[in-house]
Specification:
This protein is an all-alpha fold and 261 residues long. Helix content is 68%, strand content 0%. The protein contains 11 helices and no strands. The radius of gyration is 20 Å and the shape is elongated. Residues 99-118 bind DNA. Residues 1-72 are annotated as: Disordered. Keywords: DNA-binding, Transcription, Transcription regulation.
Length: 261
Amino acid sequence: MTATVINGQQPPPDKDHAAIAAQPRPATGSRSGASRVAGDRAIGGRAAGAARAAEAGRSADKGDAGSAGGSGRRSEAARLAVLNAADDLLVEQGFEGLTIEGIAAAAGVAKQTIYRWWKSKVDILFDNLVLDAATGLAWPAETPADPADLRAYIHRFADFLGAAPAGKVLQALLGHAQLDARTAELLHGGFLDALRARDIAHTRACLGATTDEDSTDEDAIDEAAVLLDALLAPLYHRALVLRRPLDPAFVDALLDQHLPG
């Protein structure tokens, strides 16, 4: 596929999205995770978050000639401003209403700055998803080994998908992936497949599945995969199809059906 030339510039090549989660979001006057965005909305909505993002972007574009390493800090401030602005605008305007022009204006940066790092709004949202999922979809234990760990993770997944700004990003990308092959490939190859493999492995550990003479590795993985699908599929259905909240009572009822007390 031939890359589209925008504003006389060739967009950057596809990035190694597996490495994105390793990039931290330090506090730079903008949010450093989904909790900061939630706080923004609780104390004044998008205006507070947008103001911080715009200020970060303006600082990035103005420069910081008097300090060593200022260029790197300005670049990081601009990157964070763009990511935060995209999150906020998606929640406010939806996927179709989200534009590079709108993100640039809200972040206080030039469009050229955005196209230096991302090809499209899909790529910006994807980076947001990977970064926020690194903490938002973390398991409660590094080495889960009990059904209680699985219950806690399913509750966390429900909160992420149904309430967190990053969950809105995931919902938007899932919807767009039904119509756009590149988005589908990016979302599955760069995020969902790895997430599923990790969650199956942890679910398997929570079930106490082991490999021995009576159980093959494939059998154990299948058992965990079936259980994980049975727990996650209703969450996706309720959020994406029914458009209803993923409240804790619903999640508990779902877990009680499939997990031992």
